[in-house]
Design goal:
With 488 residues, this protein is α/β, with parallel strands linked by helices. Helices cover 34% and strands 18% of the residues. The chain is globular, with a radius of gyration of 23 Å. The structure holds flavin-adenine dinucleotide and iron/sulfur cluster. InterPro entries: 4Fe4S_Fe-S-bd, DPD_II, FAD/NAD-bd_sf, FAD/NAD-binding_dom, Glut_synth_ssu1, Glutamate_Synthase, Helical_ferredxn.
Length: 488
């Protein structure tokens, strides 16, 4: 433990944001991280608990008290070694993780949690600057070939672990760039894409072969999921050419809103809108980009994806941005003794909300209205919870003006045709069916085919995807070699 009395002496210090008018002019990151001295003070707040709840609250089980102590001691090189021992990509989680570890921190019971995420962010950024992040190629090759399908955080983490275990790994991705939703969901202003690119370079040096623009299996004809594939490879071919196949294709099927008027122009899934801006930021030319300039925008869905639509619409120059959430407004402060150390339900105001947005809660959309085939507005009604069901409140119907409606109500499951191509069984929610058992976990019903990440667990978080990718890599390694030295 760095400083015994640190938690009593120092207040929590949040990372800063650049001013709204400045950051709305661009798509770059705007978080101002902690400097060395501030990180040391924040790390000194850690109590090095005998039972560190932060560690079990973190899906990758980061060894948080240890890296806090190392930062306090000024030993940043060992701090990154500790961080990398449980997390392949702390620069992703240090930027965009909601930090369940902080909700679980013991200090959070009656004080402000240790700023674990900002310390993680500082450690990994320093490690890159100092040149401490280097390729770790395997010393002995096994001669076994593994195909990983889908290059989001689950696929990337699995591919890196498997390559380090000595296997020949090929990572297939239907889109034109690596990264999954990190690349084509999460806006650049939350995470710039150079962070993915330098990991790709590291992984290439470790022997991973990247094949972008290759669709494995098939998509339905009318599918709206991102797909810039120029080539298709069949499931049978992959099963023939590789000793094991790991499916990490995400949960891409967006939840729809089949109310009257849904077929009007100007109503789009968030995942039609957000990827286009990321492509433009990357220098691609797009014909007829979906844009919010000069429009009244309604975002339906109150989560992260909706918030990203708000931030992007404001950067486009929308006239107004309104976000709907069907659930009632949660309390501003959680009842800590009741919910700690679990993730609390409370009102979360993102940096995108702060940039300008009207938020409506307990509201449901009954119909879209339009003129000449184009959306012009929508009709809503307020709802309340009765006997566990949301019911309409009579007399609360309202009309909203809208030139662009973005549907951000989450994802129902993976695209079924990809799983069907391999004959993989699905669970009740339509995800790939596989357990997370210590032995044999992540294996599907099909011989030598495994599944992990959102494709197995359903729509989730980057940190869970990294965990599943790491654990699935160990399972695949065990399957191929009869044992595994990879951490779980
Ligand atoms: C807009 C948005 C914002 C988000 N913000 C956050 C956030 O702030 N913090 C957070 O923790 N989480 C966030 N999430 C959730 C997070 O991004 C996902 O949980 C995570 O990326 C899942 O990782 P994955 O590797 O399982 O799948 P994905 O990231 O979805 O990657 C799957 C990849 O597989 C590819 N693929 C699919 N099928 C095939 C096929 N047949 N052949 C070849 N390739 C295929 C896809 O093209 C995709 O690139 C957000 C999600 C969205 C949509
Ligand atoms: S729970 Fe909080 S105070 Fe305790 S070890 Fe973890 S970070 Fe430190």
């Amino acid at each position: 433990m760095g400083k015994v009395t640190g938690f009593m002496e120092y207040e929590r210090l949040e990372e800063g944001y650049k001013p709204v008018p400045e950051r709305l002019k661009h798509y770059k990151e705007f978080v101002v991280g902690l400097d060395e001295g501030q990180s040391k003070v924040q790390a000194a707040r850690c109590m090095d608990c005998g039972t560190p709840f932060c560690n079990s609250g973190c899906p990758v089980n980061n060894i948080i008290p240890d890296f806090n102590d190392l930062v306090y001691q000024g030993d940043w090189k060992n701090a990154i070694a500790v961080l990398h021992s449980t997390n392949n990509f702390p620069e992703f989680t240090g930027r965009i993780c909601p930090a369940p570890c902080e909700a679980a921190c013991t200090l959070n019971v009656n004080d402000d949690a240790v700023g674990i995420k900002s310390i993680e962010h500082a450690i990994i950024d320093r490690a890159w600057t100092e040149g401490w992040v280097q390729p770790q190629p395997a010393r002995i090759k096994t001669g076994k070939k593994v195909a990983v399908v889908g290059s989001g955080p689950a696929g990337m983490a699995a591919a890196q672990q498997l390559a380090r275990a000595g296997h020949d790994v090929t990572l297939f991705e239907k889109n034109d760039r690596i990264g999954g939703l990190l690349r084509y969901g999460i806006p650049d202003f939350k995470m710039e894409k150079s962070h993915i690119d330098r990991r790709v370079e590291q992984m290439k040096a470790e022997g991973v072969v990247f094949r972008t623009g290759v669709l494995v299996g098939a998509l339905p004809k009318d599918s709206k999921v991102t797909n810039w594939a120029k080539e298709t490879v069949s499931a049978e071919q992959l099963q023939k050419d590789f000793d094991a196949v790991l499916l990490t294709g995400g949960s891409e099927q967006s939840r729809d809103l089949p109310v009257p008027g849904r077929d009007l122009d100007g109503i789009h899934f968030a995942m039609e809108f957000l990827p286009q801006q990321n492509k433009v930021n990357a220098g691609d030319k797009l014909k007829g980009q979906l844009r919010a300039d000069g429009k009244h925008v309604i975002v339906i869905g109150g989560g992260d994806t909706g918030s990203d639509c708000v931030g992007t619409s404001n950067r486009h120059g929308a006239v107004s941005v309104t976000q709907f959430e069907v659930m009632p407004q949660p309390p501003e402060q959680e009842n800590k003794p009741l919910v700690w150390p679990y993730w609390p339900l409370k009102l979360r105001t993102s940096s995108s909300h702060e940039e300008g947005c009207t938020r409506e809660f307990a509201i449901s959309t009954k119909a879209f209205k339009g003129e000449k085939g184009k959306v012009t507005g929508l009709t809503t009604v307020h709802v309340e919870m009765k006997d566990g069901k949301l019911v309409e409140i009579p007399g609360t119907e309202k009309e909203y003006k809208a030139d662009l409606v973005l549907l951000a109500m989450g994802f129902v499951n993976p695209v079924a045709t990809v799983l069907d191509a391999f004959g993989v069984d699905k669970d009740a929610r339509g995800n790939a069916k596989a357990t997370t058992d210590f032995t044999g976990g992540y294996a599907t019903n099909v011989s030598k085919v495994f599944a992990a990440g959102d494709m197995r667990r359903g729509q989730s978080l980057v940190v869970w995807a990294i965990r599943e990718g790491r654990q699935a890599a160990r399972s695949v390694d065990e399957f191929l070699m009869g044992f595994s030295d990879l951490p779980r």
